[in-house]
Amino acid sequence: MQHHRRSGIQLLLAAVLVLSPFHLADAEEKSAKNIEETPAEASEADLSKLRELFEELAPSPAKDTLLRIPDLGRRLLALRSYSRAGRSLRKRWSWTAAQIKAYQGSPEQQALLEEVAAIAAHFAEANPGYELFMITKVRSLDVQTKNWNHNRSVKRGGDQILADWTEKFTGEGKFAGDWTKKQFWRWLNTYRVKTRARLAAPGLSRHGQARAIDFQIKKDGEIIAGTKFSDVAKVWRAEEWDKKLKASIEEAGPSFRGPLMLPPEPWHYDYEPKPPKEAVKPASG
User: Fold this and answer.
1) Which of 263, 264, 228 is nearest to 27 (CA)?
2) From CA 216, how far away is CA 229, in angstroms rounded?
3) Taking all residues of the chain, what is their mean pLDDT, rounded to a whole number?
4) N or C: at which end does the chain have fewer Cβ atoms within 10 angstroms?
């Protein structure tokens, strides 16, 4: 029995090594149509001033990423996340291509894959006929930025924060006229999001440092409980896959914490291993 279990885990390890982040099933990451670059209510002078502030206020290493977000609302929403991250931004920032390459085949990656495989083996044994599909590949900054630029929930959140900025800083708004950088920065840092995006801002996803894993449920080769937010209530909770997954993770995944509660993602678990002797270093620029 022990030999068969080890063989099963070895096969699962081989499988998770080839998984790609592009298998994400969440429909929220499909392209949003008819993106509006600017609100009609804002004057070109105010918009120019806002664009200049992006250049001036964007913290390192997020400056280049902000410039790759063409929609002003999405960009403003991302800047809010970066400003609120404060001093932790650099430490949390997603790995570079060189860092991802260094991670491949490292003891740190092997430890993750072994723990994920153990969870999958426990789940398959506890739920005959079902298996886990895991996305273990590091989610690059390029992929995160692409998702941010096309995700519909980000579009809604971006439209809302841009509309609120327009109301406050243009026309008859409280800060209309010769508003200052300090006024803008204070407003942005205290702004309470009304429409929450279902993605972390590019560079801040825990998937970007291999510190989060999305688990999905498969049967007969088909995903029956994926990463669609519409599945949270009618599939994950109604069929109790959230409880079944959590049971396997608690039993076989001591380094995992979760699931993510806000927004509710029963498939998302943070990975918090003990620091290895030679961990991948955070971005330096």
Assistant:
1) 228
2) 13
3) 85
4) N
253, 116 contact by CB (below 8 A): yes
Number of H helices, E strands in the chain: 12, 5
Sign of CA dihedral 181, 185, 186, 191: positive
- Segment 82-114, tens digit of pLDDT: 999 999 999 999 999 999 999 999 999 999 999
Structure-token match 């678990």, residue found: 269
Q: How far is 94 from 99, CA to CA, in rounded Å?
A: 9
Dmax (CA) of the chain: 75
Amino acid present at 90: R
Question: Tens digit of pLDDT for each residue in 168-215?
Answer: 988 777 877 778 889 999 999 999 988 889 999 999 999 999 999 999
Token look-up 């688990």 returns 215
Burial call 161-194: b when 16+ CB within 10 Å, e when fewer:
bbbbbbbbbbeebebeeebeeeebeebbeebeee
Cβ burial of 52 (10 Å; 0-12, 13-18, 19+) is exposed
Q: What is the mean pLDDT of residues 38-53?
A: 76
- pLDDT by residue (tens digit) across 56-71? 888 889 999 999 999 9
Q: Kindly tell me the burial class for residue 282, based on how many C-beta atoms sit within 10 Å of its own C-beta (0-12, 13-18, 19 or more).
A: middle
pTM above 0.90, yes or no: no
E strands present in the chain: 130-135, 212-219, 222-225, 256-257, 268-271
160's CB contacts (< 8 A; 6+ apart) are 73, 193, 194, 195
Whole-number Å distance between alpha carbons of 70 and 51:
11
